[in-house]
Amino acid sequence: MTLTVENLQVADLVRGISFELGAGERVGLIGESGSGKSLTALSVLGLLPEELSATGSVRLDGRELLGASEKELSRLRGNEMAMVFQEPMTALNPAMRVGRQVTEPFRVHGRRGRPAEELLAAVGLPGVARAYPHQLSGGQRQRVVLAIALANDPALLICDEPTTALDVTVQAQILSLIRERLSAESSLLFITHDLAVVAQMCDRVLVMLDGSIVEHGSTREVLTAPKHAYTQRLLAASDLEGAR
């Protein structure tokens, strides 16, 4: 499945960006806070705040998503495309046991899926199906969110800073799970400000600054020989600089 973004504009916050993500590709979208990364992801999923609207074109295998009805988008979310957010507590229902939340995508899309216990065990959480989100650690909650996102084997997975609030050990575990559990045919758009994470997760990278894409290329090219001054500054401030 191919995601095609053309001339995407969101107020003055995302300024006419274009890119394509092919089947099985792993692409990083990097930049500092406020660069427009998350708004780009929310535009793809049709989840922009009410006060914002997107223009341009966002197509998933040729189907236009901008301007699509909520009913149409709901059929795609959690089925053909899914998202892992930075803060799992905003993505989980505090009053619902995590086992029921993990199997919710099956009920929403009328599919018969795997048991909650199996889905949770696949992300390293056996025996927690009857727990509530507040009873789990931050890393465990993020694993639950990942299990939900991957339940229907989406063709497109968007991760928006999914490990920012986690310690280094748990971060490594979550990244490993994403690599292991995402099917080879699924595409990944990984949003982060952490260049070390991009180096681990992505084959190609897009660099955003003030709502625009200022550099793109293979991860190796961009992180070893950045052309734009902004990318050079990001690299100089990262842990990767000393390893070059």
From TrEMBL:
Transmembrane segments: none
Record GO terms (molecular function): ATP binding; ATP hydrolysis activity
Pfam families, A to Z: ABC_tran
Protein's cellular compartments: Cell membrane
GO cellular component: plasma membrane
Keyword Metal-binding in record: no
Membrane-related topology note: Peripheral membrane protein
Segments forming domain ABC transporter: 3-235
InterPro entries: AAA+_ATPase, ABC_Ni/Peptide_Import, ABC_transporter-like_ATP-bd, ABC_transporter-like_CS, P-loop_NTPase
Keywords linked to the UniProt accession: ATP-binding, Cell membrane, Membrane, Nucleotide-binding, Transport
Family to which this protein belongs: Belongs to the ABC transporter superfamily.
The protein's name in its UniProt record: ABC-type dipeptide/oligopeptide/nickel transport system ATPase component
Organism encoding this protein: Amycolatopsis echigonensis
